[in-house]
Amino acid sequence: RWIPQAPPAKSLDVGIILGLSQGFMHPLLDERGFYTHGGGARLFVMPFEGDRMVPVSERRVMWQLSFSCKDKNSNNNNNQHQDSSLFHNKASPEQLLQHARTMCHNWHPPVPQMLAATPTSTVWGTMLCDRDPLLIYRQLKELPLQRVLVIGDALHAMSPFKGAGANQALQDGRAVAQWLDPYSTRKQTTRRLDKAVQSCLRELTQRTQRVVYESRAAARFWHYSSGKTSTTRTRTTSHDDEGDNDDNEQQQQQEQEQVNGSGSD
Prior knowledge:
Elements: E1 10-22, E2 33-38, E3 41-49, E4 60-68, H1 85-88, H2 93-103, H3 111-116, E5 124-130, H4 133-140, H5 153-156, H6 165-180, H7 185-190, H8 193-223, E6 233-237
Antiparallel strand pairs: 1-4, 1-5, 2-3, 2-6, 3-4
Helix pairs in contact: 6-8
């Protein structure tokens, strides 16, 4: 039976390296975290394990360094791009950590010291991409039998810069239960599995497409400047939700296509 080819994920031209430093402490890391942003790069740091009740040797801090990084198939010509061969050549954790240390060697304390206290066994990195749920929706509409349901990252993979990905996946689970539970009000209004699947997929697409676009805009906001070298800015935070403060700083530039009225009720 013919199955449509899934549309490719869209590269965001952003690379990311993550790691866990341990046995190291600084006032900016004492049960709090911070952001540093500038020059096409963004560093997000937050407590990962331990608190003031345990020795410093048992405390760990998570850091996430993201930066503009042109994908090999991208047409983006921004001059702040880092070399993406680091990821395409499947760099080792040692190479990734060295790249992060080189990028941040002259950053403010405690960034260089924190990276120096990071074991290579905790480091990994990748290029970031997202997926437009409307494209998936349109492909699935071509199936002769509408009983295929795609949820989570398979439908709406998105950048982490609005902190919304896991939230949307959890809402997907609730929607699936509401549409497919034979005793739910929504399921009883359709009375047919294929109709319920179509309606559920349409709801997921309508809800998540805007969030994917906003997360894409956040990735561009944090990693692309107007051309001049931007001033490094640091902000401390006492919580671990890095998406809180993004809403007022995004400039939505994508036109959102709606699927209202398509499919079956």
